[in-house]
Amino acid sequence: MSTVRLTGFTGHPKGERKTGLAVGMDKGHVLTSRDLKPKPSYRKGKLNKRVAFVREIVREVAGYAPYEKRTMELLKVGKEKRALKVLKNKLGTHKRAKAKREEMSGVLRAQRTK
């Protein structure tokens, strides 16, 4: 009876130690894994509380851009696809347009619940 061992990207079984031998499934030099501190670069893209607060205040004071207002009107009428096209034309990429459309529909949802 053979047992199935899960292997990672390298083909080495996950969670198993190397044997120190040059052949076999667990071949290779035996190393002790070190606990490394998380790199600051891992935080990239994570929203800071202060930044979120400042953005909220700016949105409150400045309001919405004309293209955002138009998008919200299109979403109110139920023209999601047209809203996406307007946003894609304005923002440049499909991914950004989808994110902005979700943001605008979230704003409308929040306005309805108030």
Automatic annotation (TrEMBL):
InterPro entries xref list: Ribosomal_eL36, Ribosomal_eL36_sf
Keywords, sorted A to Z: Ribonucleoprotein, Ribosomal protein
Listed GO MF terms: structural constituent of ribosome
Example GO BP: translation
Region (Disordered) residue spans: 1-20, 93-114
Gene Ontology annotations for the cellular component aspect, listed alphabetically: ribonucleoprotein complex; ribosome
One Pfam family here: Ribosomal_L36e
Membrane-spanning ranges: none
Functional note: Component of the large ribosomal subunit. The ribosome is a large ribonucleoprotein complex responsible for the synthesis of proteins in the cell.
Subunit structure: Component of the large ribosomal subunit.
Protein family membership: Belongs to the eukaryotic ribosomal protein eL36 family.
Protein name, entry field: 60S ribosomal protein L36
